[in-house]
Write a structure and sequence with these properties.
Low-confidence stretches: 150-158
Structural class: mainly alpha
Number of strands: 2
Strand order of the largest sheet: 1-2
CATH superfamily of the domain at 3-86 and 127-139: Winged helix-like DNA-binding domain superfamily/Winged helix DNA-binding domain
Strand content: 5-15%
CATH topology of the domain at 3-86 and 127-139: Arc Repressor Mutant, subunit A
CATH class of the domain at 3-86 and 127-139: Mainly Alpha
Radius of gyration: 19 Å
Helix content: 40-55%
Number of helices: 6
Length: 158
Amino acid sequence: MNSDFSIAVHSLVLLAHRSDHMATSEMIANNVCTNPARVRKVMSLLRNHGFVATKEGTGGGYMLDCDPETTHLGQIYTVVCAGTLKPSWCSGDPDNGCMIASNVQSVMDGLFHEAEDHLELYWRKWTIAAVLEQICSLHEGKSDGTPKLEKGVFEHGG
C-alpha cells in the first residue's frame, strides 16, 4: 500500500466536511500536509472515477461528487492502490532446482492476492461518512480514535 490511499481518504473526508465549498489543491495539500502536486495526482484518479468534480478558474477547485454515506474505502482502495500490497520483487526463481526457491514466488503471489482481498473487504466496512464521524467524535472527546467495527468480522470459519 502507498500513501496515495491516505491522501485520497483524507481529501474525500475533508470535502465531505466542507460539502458546500470548493477546495483548491493548495488548500487540500495544506490540510493533508503534503505538496499540491501529489494532491492533484490523487485527485485526478478520484475525478476520473467519479468521486470528485472539478471547476477550473477563479473560485474553482474540487467538490465531492459521490455520496459519503455509500462510498466506501474499498472503492477508494481499488482505484488508488489495488495491487500494491504485493512487493514488486519476490525471492526465489522458478528455474532454480531447489524446491523452495522454485515454488516460493507462486505461493507468495497467492498469499498476497488473498491478503489483498481481505484488506479490500475490511475497507468496505468503512464509508467516507463513517470516517468523518469518527474524526468528529475524536475531536469532541467522545472517542479515543479506535475504529468501532463489529467483532468477529474476520474470525476463521465465521
